[in-house]
Design goal:
Chain B: Keywords: Dioxygenase, Oxidoreductase. Chain B: This is Protocatechuate 3,4-dioxygenase, alpha subunit. Chain B: One of its GO terms (molecular function) is ferric iron binding. The complex is a heterodimer of chains A (about 250) and B (about 200). By secondary structure, chain A is mainly β. In chain A, about 5% of the residues lie in helices and about 25% in strands. Chain A has one domain: Aromatic compound dioxygenase (Protocatechuate 3,4-Dioxygenase, subunit A). Chain A contains three helices and 14 strands. Chain A is globular and about 55 Å long. In chain A, about 50% of the residues are buried. Chain B has four helices and ten strands; from the N terminus they run ααββββββααββββ. Chain B has a single domain (about 20-190), classed as Aromatic compound dioxygenase (Protocatechuate 3,4-Dioxygenase, subunit A, Sandwich), CATH 2.60.130. Chain B is mainly beta. Classes of the chains: A mainly beta (about 250), B mainly beta (about 200). At the A-B interface, α1, β2, α2, β4 and β10 of A face α1, β2, β5, β6 and β10 of B. The site of fe (iii) ion (FE) has 3 residues of chain A, from β9.
């Protein structure tokens, strides 16, 4: 059997590092010992960067995008029921279809189902807190969950994370790989967050904030937020090497 | 929500740290629970994938020389013939894997096949066998891209077009996994310090 989808190897435009946090950001103390100090070495794309794994619906399960049901044991999880949805686009505004989007989050009380999380808030017996989906032909993703709660963490003496969901996104090539977090419009903790504060540009920070989307809400049932993701762009010309080599 | 620039391009979504609980989303078994029927990235190969079976492993050290024990490592590689595959081949070759560093020892490992040589960019020599690595963790604000090469590929490494753009030959060594035994390679990654690993802006 051949690949479900052939590679369309496209060379990526260089990452716009001004949109991202630098490696070392003293406001977020852990980065001080974990961020590389030396400049990155710029690499022109080779096949190892323009290719990447492609996932299909066979890779994931039917409930994987429903965090309200995918770990329900004795009932549904406690919390505000929400739909999070949006599109994955590239820097040229093109939708990125058929890519894996994964997400993980704390429960409504701000506690993760993770052996290293010791926050006093209780684990929800019916909430796993993770899921995944694949973007459709228009680059859309959607999942249902409960709104995560804020939680404290050790950084400055009294630091609290705003409500947020962690996202992992694949593009068409390994060089597009992205992990980030999104936030919720109107959260008063947003302006005080040390991790969001690692991003120097206020406009870039604002692009991580999901907006309330009443049109996508299910009346009397589930509220909705919308958040779009932009991966680095690719050139419209195909990569100059054929996969078979030359 | 987006502000296209004057030419209509969209700004990239900024990266944020994967945080201390990255395992829950991407390798939930390590976080301590089982949720998905299919855990992605557990192996880059299938039982019948052709090629030399190898184990690569290592640790990731922070600026104090302590092992990072909560990182996630993803790998992407060509098959034994030097070809990349978007989706699994009939013999189960995937080329992509993800694993976490151990919460106690900080060790990560991946069992795979040794990749073949891959064409370089147009006009360049073939690249030496290598595996692309991508590392995220609490305290890492944007995923780190590096490569693992093999110590027993001296001739290929010497003409590798990527190793050669690293100006200081000593720094090239930070990417070369030592051969500990037949089929077993070790690469330690240093986030900072004198032996800071070469990370690429790919
Ligand atoms: Fe978090």
């Amino acid at each position: 059997m051949t690949a479900l989808r052939e590679f369309v190897p496209r060379e990526f435009v260089p990452r716009d590092r001004d949109q991202h946090p630098p490696a070392v950001t003293p406001i977020y103390k852990t980065s001080v010992l974990r961020g590389p100090h030396r400049p990155l070495i710029s690499l022109q794309n080779s096949l190892s960067e323009v290719t990447g794994p492609v996932f299909g619906h066979g890779d994931i399960g039917p409930l994987d995008n429903d965090l309200i049901l995918n770990y329900a044991k004795t009932g549904q999880p406690i919390g505000e029921r929400i739909i999070m949805h949006g599109r994955v686009l590239d820097g040229s505004g093109r939708p990125v279809p058929g890519v894996l989007v994964e997400f993980w989050q704390a429960n409504a009380g701000g506690r993760y189902r993770h052996r290293n999380d010791t926050y006093v808030a209780p684990v929800d017996p019916n909430f796993g807190g993770c899921g995944r989906t694949i973007t459709d032909a228009e680059g859309r993703y959607a999942f249902r969950t409960v709104k995560p709660g804020p939680y404290p963490y050790r950084n400055r003496g009294n630091d609290w994370r705003p409500a947020h969901i962690h996202f992992s996104v694949f593009g068409t090539g390994f060089a597009q790989r992205l992990i980030t977090q999104n936030y919720f419009e109107g959260d008063p903790l947003i302006g005080r967050d040390s991790i969001l504060g690692t991003i120097p540009d206020p406009a870039a920070r604002e692009r991580l904030v999901a907006k309330l989307d009443l049109e996508a809400a299910v009346p009397l049932d589930t509220l909705a937020y919308r958040w779009d993701i932009v991966l680095r762009g690719s050139r419209s010309t195909l990569f100059e090497n054929r996969l078979e080599g030359n | 929500m987006f502000t296209p620039n004057a030419l209509g391009y969209l700004a990239e979504t900024p990266s944020q740290t994967a945080g201390p609980y990255v395992h829950i989303g991407l390798i939930p078994k390590q976080a301590g629970f089982d949720i998905f029927a299919n855990n992605l990235g557990e192996s880059p190969i299938g039982a019948t994938t052709p090629g030399e079976r190898i184990r690569i492993e290592g640790r990731i050290f922070d600026g104090t020389g302590s092992p990072v024990r909560d990182a996630l490592v993803e790998s992407w590689q060509a098959d034994a013939a030097g070809l990349h595959h978007a989706t699994p081949t009939p013999d189960g070759f995937r080329g992509w894997a993800r694993t976490g560093t151990d919460f106690e020892s900080g060790l990560w490992s991946i069992e795979t096949v040794k990749p073949g040589r891959v064409p370089g960019r147009h006009g360049h020599k073939r690249m030496a066998p290598h595996i692309s690595l991508w590392i995220v963790a609490r305290g890492i604000n944007i995923g780190l891209s590096t490569r693992l090469y093999f110590a027993d590929e001296e001739a290929a490494n010497a003409e590798d077009p990527v190793l050669r753009i690293i100006e200081q030959p000593a720094r090239r060594q930070t990417l070369i996994a030592r051969r500990e035994a037949a089929g077993r390679y070790v690469l330690d990654i240093h986030l900072q310090g004198e032996n800071e690993t070469v990370f690429f802006d790919i």
